[in-house]
Amino acid sequence: MPPRPRTDPSARTRKRILDTAERLFGERGVGAVSLRDINRTAGISQGVLHYHFGGRDMLVKAILERWLPSINADRRRMYDALLASGRAPQHRDIVEILCLPLAKLAIDRQAAGRRFLRCLAKLHQEHNPLRSQVSDRYIDVPILEMLHDVAPGASRPLIEWYLGMIMNVIHATLGDIGRPGQPWQEALNATPLTPQEQVSALVEFISDGVNAL
């Protein structure tokens, strides 16, 4: 029987730091979590975190950079398929491009995916500049232009406000899918919905809102 490949201890430590920071940032917000909190919770010394990441900003960037490439690759594939179909984008197409790659994380990656989404929600709510800086390097789907095409009478600031509101709802909702004890999901105890059905309901709900533009 061939020997099992060894896991790089340095890679394991780096992953533990990222996982811990994601969870704490998602629970409290980036500004409320100190590096000492991360060190203590991850069970590492301060020097180890600085060796791997240098500080808080590089840690936030590393969290985003380990997830965003695959998310935006999925969005690009969906957008390219829409272009290849030859039909004009509709409200629901735009919402699906925004939502479904994140829903895939929440459902397929389960706890890890939802942990990242809660962290992303906090970064979005705090208007963390690093989120925009890193995201802009990866996002190449013209979402704002698509929204303008389906709502030509809406101003650019109004469209940007709608997009921010949409992403707040998507991050917060998907971050809680499958998590027990969430008060806003208590109604599902009487009328259960699978995670996939919850995603469909979310897409439908947001599509109706976009249509109001």
Calculate the mean pLDDT score and round it.
Answer: 89
Largest sheet properties: none
Which regions are unreliable across 5 or more consecutive residues at pLDDT < 50? Answer: 3-7
**Kindly, what is the distance between the CA atoms of the first and last residues, rounded to a whole number of angstroms?**
62 Å
Give me the number of helical elements.
10
Rg for CA atoms: 19 Å
Tell the overall outline.
Answer: globular
Strand portion, in percent? under 5%
Helix content: over 70%
Number of strands: 0
Task: Give the SSE string.
Answer: HHHHHHHHHH
What structural class is derived from the secondary structure elements?
A: mainly alpha
Reconstruct the topology from this structure.
Elements: H1 9-28, H2 35-42, H3 46-53, H4 56-85, H5 91-108, H6 110-125, H7 129-138, H8 143-150, H9 156-176, H10 195-211
Notable characteristics:
single chain; disordered N terminus; globular; mainly alpha; 213 residues
Can you characterise this structure?
This protein is mainly alpha-helical. The protein is built from ten helices and no strands. α9 (156-176) runs antiparallel to α10 (195-211). The protein is globular and about 55 Å long. The chain starts with 8 loop residues before the first helix and ends with a helix.
Short description:
This protein is 73% helix and 0% strand.
